Each structure stands twice: as C-alpha cells, then as structure tokens.
C-alpha cells in the first residue's frame, strides 16, 4: 500500500530555512497537503495542492512536489513555527498521512 | 466562521461500539463541494483518516479498518456521526471531525474540530 515517509525530527535555528521532506512512490504524480499541529491543538492546513497557501498562512511557508519527494519549506523560521508537521496525499481514494516531523526551533 | 464540534461518551469498553457526533455550525453540511468525516490520533502518535461522507450519503472509508467504521449524515440537524465497532485499546485516540474540500484533483482537509479524546478501557 502507498506510504509517505517523513523524518521524525528536524532542528533549525531561528531565521534559518527548514525543509521537511515527505517521500513516497511517485508522490510527485499526486497532490500533497501539509498540516501543522502545535501541542494540545488541532491540526491546521498550511499548504494544499502542493504549493498553495490558505488565507492567513504566512508567506514564509511554501511547498514543492516532484518525483518521489514532496517538501515543505519554512523560510526565516520563527519560534512560533515549532510544531509537528504532517504531509498527506490520496491513493486509491484513501487519504494517507506521513508519520509526522517534529520541528524544533532553537 | 465555520465550526465543527465533536460530542460523545468519554469512555468506551473493549468489544463495544464507539459512537460520536459532529455538529457543524456557521455553514450548511449540504453545501456542494465538501465531504465531512473523521480523522483520529492516538496519544503521542500520528494522524489516521477513518472516512468521509457527502451530504447525499456517498461515503469513502479507510480499508485498513476492515469495515468496522460507519459514517452517516443527518442534514436536518447539520450533523454527521461515527460508529466504530468491536473497539480495543488500540482505538484509544483523539477523534477529529473534519471538512474535506473537493478542489479539482486535490482534495484537502481545510477545517478541523477541536477533537475529543475517547479512551477504550474496561
């Protein structure tokens, strides 16, 4: 079955660029979405259709998707961006989530 | 502002059926272009999609749950419901009600409820 693989954790210094990868077989042929979840809160959508941002999501969040890897990029990472991030795609009418990446800003 | 509110019993016993309701406010569940459904998250773990339903009753389920899941819709009450049968401790999770936006070939979950924790324990 289709799987999405994310690194469990990533650390970045404030102001630096964080790139969170999401690997899956030919994931570039599918549209991906990305969700941010802070402790004790519900997930929120930060990227859809690979690279589009919902209203209210800062421009520092961007996405790309090609080949076997989708990537969420946070430019100029801020302390408020510390959270878990999940990628998601559809395969055979089933929503599949990656295992999540814990982003630490320190 | 669209809001999704989950409700249901706080504890379920093993082998019984878990039942939850999601009430949608600030919008109609009968609006075209959206499915409504459930995603769960075991404590400290990742997200798992359970299924989604259209206001007409058309449903999609996660095949990994082996037909234990049933989602229904009540348009008169602007609600959807979840039933998960034969539960075990592995079904202990936060259950989120979600809206699935049917963009062209790029469906995505754009609204989430606050979630409700359902422990499974005797």
Provide an overview of this structure.
The complex is a heterodimer of chains A (106) and B (122). Chain A is mainly β and 106 residues long. Helix content of chain A is 0%, strand content 47%. Chain A has no helices and 9 strands. Chain A has strands at residues 9-12, 18-23, 32-37, 44-47, 61-66, 69-74, 83-91, 94-97, 101-105. In chain A, the strands form 2 sheets. In chain A, strands 1, 3, 4, 7, 8 and 9 form a 6-stranded mixed β-sheet that branches. Chain A has a 3-stranded antiparallel β-sheet with strand order 2-6-5, with no helix packed on it. The model of chain A has no long low-confidence stretch (mean pLDDT 97). Chain B has 122 residues and is mainly beta. In chain B, the strands form 2 sheets. In chain B, strands 3, 4, 5, 8, 9 and 10 form a 6-stranded antiparallel β-sheet that branches. In chain B, strands 1-2-7-6 form a 4-stranded antiparallel β-sheet, with no helix packed on it. In chain B, a hairpin with a 6-residue loop joins strand 3 and strand 4. Chain B is globular. The chains are: A mainly beta (106), B mainly beta (122). The interface between A and B is medium-sized, with 22 and 22 residues.
